[in-house]
Write a sequence for this structure.
């Protein structure tokens, strides 16, 4: 492994090998790799936002990779450099991945102005948010001004991704209105743009109907972005129909955020939540690093699980012991 200083230099020059290596450091659970990743990130820290971060989520098989592959070349044709990061929570639990590997986007992977990073398959359990934030920062430091974060819509990961991107695109497939593919209302409420994919062949009419139903449903929901009406587009990633509109809406949203002065505010809120996440994680790591406290944590967890103590009281007690031990409390 190169040193953080050498990696930082490589990244600034746009060296892909350095970027790949840096992301591997951020993925690693080894404490020395974590330390190096932190040092690298502090060497690269910049004040001004240099990119636009696009979150894309949807159920497996909705067509996310087909869409990103097709949008990707349009984005790089517009003279942007595009990084694509995939987050697949299933792979962290099973070691296997719903999303599969890099070959999902062969054209983009071979595109000189793009960088595709497949999902990490282990090592970052519980740290998806931290890993993703760091990987985004590393791509930006390497000169990528558009970053797509793709995630499978299974659980909490969408929320996390929505919390670290500037725009959140939800991709669905045609379905009966009352089901909306089991997508939870909460996820719909996060969306800035909704796409109904596979609007082609036999599915076209159904896709149009799903789009109208979706539009009606979102009309009743509060928009995450004040004053923004969530557009719902029926598209075909496979036939590449509606993709210019998708890019147009993404750009319109970017401008909206800038004009309404929401862009900086959103980033600031996200930075604050990154800070509190890091604080929480750091405290817990330190607590676990002490063998006695780690045992007490396990015991408390069991007691809380058995209903003998409330989690809140258990946490207060552990914190008190921790600070007493470390000298934080007289
Ligand atoms: P992902 O799991 O969301 O990334 O989905 P993929 O992009 O891998 O696509 C899953 C399957 O749906 C593949 O067989 C694609 O060829 C197909 N697919 C993707 N987009 C479309 C589309 O717009 N129309 C149709 N008919 N099939 C599509």
């Amino acid at each position: 492994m190169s040193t953080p200083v050498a990696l930082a230099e490589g990244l600034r020059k746009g060296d892909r090998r350095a970027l790949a290596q840096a992301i591997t450091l951020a993925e690693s659970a080894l404490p020395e790799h974590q330390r190096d990743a932190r040092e690298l990130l502090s060497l690269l820290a910049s004040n001004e936002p240099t990119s636009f971060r696009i979150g894309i989520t949807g159920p497996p098989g909705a067509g996310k990779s087909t869409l990103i592959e097709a949008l990707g070349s349009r984005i790089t044709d517009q003279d942007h450099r595009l990084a694509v990061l995939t987050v697949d929570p299933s792979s962290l639990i099973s070691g296997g991945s719903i999303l599969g590997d890099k070959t999902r986007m062969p054209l983009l992977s071979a595109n000189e102005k793009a960088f595709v990073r497949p999902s990490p398959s282990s090592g970052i359990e519980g740290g998806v948010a931290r890993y993703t934030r760091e990987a985004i920062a590393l791509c930006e430091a390497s000169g990528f001004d558009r970053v797509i974060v793709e995630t499978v819509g299974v659980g909490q990961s969408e929320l996390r991704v929505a919390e670290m991107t500037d725009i959140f695109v939800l991709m669905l497939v045609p379905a009966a209105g009352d089901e909306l593919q089991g997508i939870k209302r909460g996820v719909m409420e996060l969306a800035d743009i909704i796409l109904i994919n596979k609007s082609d062949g036999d599915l076209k009419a159904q896709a149009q109907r799903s789009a109208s139903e979706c539009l009606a449903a979102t009309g009743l929901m509060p928009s995450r972005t004040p004053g923004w009406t969530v557009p719902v587009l029926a598209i075909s990633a496979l036939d590449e129909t509606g993709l210019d509109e998708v890019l147009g809406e993404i750009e319109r949203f970017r401008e909206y955020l800038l004009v309404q002065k929401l862009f900086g505010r959103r980033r600031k809120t996200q930075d604050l939540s990154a800070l509190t996440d890091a604080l929480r994680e750091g405290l817990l790591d330190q607590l676990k690093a002490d063998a006695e406290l780690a045992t007490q944590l396990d015991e408390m967890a069991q007691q809380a699980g058995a209903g003998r103590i409330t989690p809140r009281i258990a946490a207060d007690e552990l914190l008190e012991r921790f600070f007493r031990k470390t000298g934080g409390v007289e």
Remarks:
- The longest helix spans residues 263-289.
- The beta strands are 52-58, 82-87, 114-117, 146-152, 167-172, 193-196, 232-234.
- The first strand starts at residue 52 and ends at 58.
